[in-house]
Design goal:
The structure is a single chain. By secondary structure, the chain is an alpha+beta fold. Helices cover 26% and strands 32% of the residues. The N and C termini lie far apart (42 Å).
Length: 173
């Protein structure tokens, strides 16, 4: 088979039609959090919280050690879902709701993400696009829930997304 005749498959997320309510997507591999991750994220976001940066001070606090920045945890959870669910098919994030961090994350913990499709509907104002609500959950290596969040997003329908990607049509409004 020549290279010209070879079928190509491009990695992508799901089109609107492919999201199924009540399906749980497990995002693997996990991500082990390092001290460098925590310090870099915390300083890049200009967060001077000593719970994330000062081991001596944190050692005297209730958890007895540095806590990983909770927004790093949330960002990692959402990032873990991209390749499987939204890579190249997302139009925009519309918002997050009900974010919670029921257990702490420490340096050395491994985060495993999962997402459940809570609802979906076609957009009434943006043809070729649909609104999907995901429930994201992050667990550590012991299975403890360390983060949850609801995420509402705008996703291309297959026909509109393929047309947009090929340049054969204008993006919707």
């Amino acid at each position: 088979m020549t290279e010209d005749a070879m079928r190509e498959v491009v990695q992508r997320g799901l089109w609107f039609e492919e999201f199924e309510e009540g399906v749980r997507y497990l995002h693997r591999p996990g991500r082990t959090v390092t001290d460098a991750d925590n310090v870099l994220f915390t300083t890049l976001t200009m967060n001077p919280q000593p719970l994330h940066l000062d081991a001596a001070w944190s050692g005297r606090q209730p958890f007895g050690r540095v806590l990983v920045n909770s927004l790093f945890t949330l960002s990692t959870l959402v990032g873990q879902s991209v390749g499987q669910l939204t890579q190249g098919t997302l139009v925009a994030n519309l918002g997050f709701g009900a974010v919670a961090f029921p257990n702490p994350v420490f340096v050395g913990d491994t985060l495993y993400g999962e997402s459940v499709v809570e609802s979906k509907r076609l957009s009434s104002s943006r043809p070729g696009e649909g609104i999907v609500v995901l429930g994201h959950t992050a667990r550590n290596q012991d299975g403890d829930v360390v983060a949850t969040a609801s995420r509402t997003m705008l996703v291309w329908t297959r026909e509109a997304g393929e047309r947009h990607a090929s340049g054969d049509g204008e993006a919707s409004g």
